[in-house]
Amino acid sequence: MVYQQPIRTTLELNGPGAWGEMQTDIKPRKPNPYFQQLFPSHTAQYGPAFLELHETFCDGFTKVTPISINVDIFASIFSDPSLNMSVVYFEPEMQFYYFEPLQNIYKPTTPEKLQNLYRALLIRSAQELNNDTNKLNLFHEFRSDKTAKAIVNRAKSILAAESSFFSATSSHQRIRGIELHERLILKLVETMLEAREGSILTMTQAYQIFCQMSQQRNLNTLKRSVFRELMRDLIRDKFGMALRNDVPDELNKHQQAWKGLRVMEAESVVA
Fold it and tell me: Tens digit of pLDDT for each residue in 149-163?
């Protein structure tokens, strides 16, 4: 077989139409339109998937070779409806989380699993594109550990979530997150306590109530020291009361407590 020299060679970034324009081809022939059709909003924001080498031959056929990858767009697609995935990188813990739709909760995942997902996506594209595309880089170079790690590392900044993402007042929930305890403490303070002159709420009493509520909800025990810090701040914000260290007990020993605060109803503990 005699190799034909191309009569025209160009480097191209754009597929047909603008970056964000949805492609209408049922099966795009080139890599950039293929990924543009899969991820139109990501393409609109981060640009086409590859820098492509287009070689046009005298018979009119064009050979397309993706020669350089756009790391940003592939880092962004871990959170995309077409993949049925929502992934965030929770910066305070340096941990990736993905959304589990059946349980309506975020669960931790690993960089290695995200790398495998990315590799599978490239394999899929190599299978579905026709022979007008040179598939060597799609199968080998862009699926290397070096490139896969670079994609996931870039996702840390693109998919970054701050501490407020999993806070006590956030709508996002994750499995075994401390915010589950924070929400329980918030419920205790907001719905079960009231100011009452002459009353005393000790730290021991509050912690026992909280542990009972946690057990009812199958939550792990929270350290008393952590509970104390969270409870102290919430009570100060709601009631303007400080945690005291000099409240005497029945044996006249000093204990930590809030003066002028009490639990409204004992039966509300099990509500």
Answer: 999 999 999 999 998
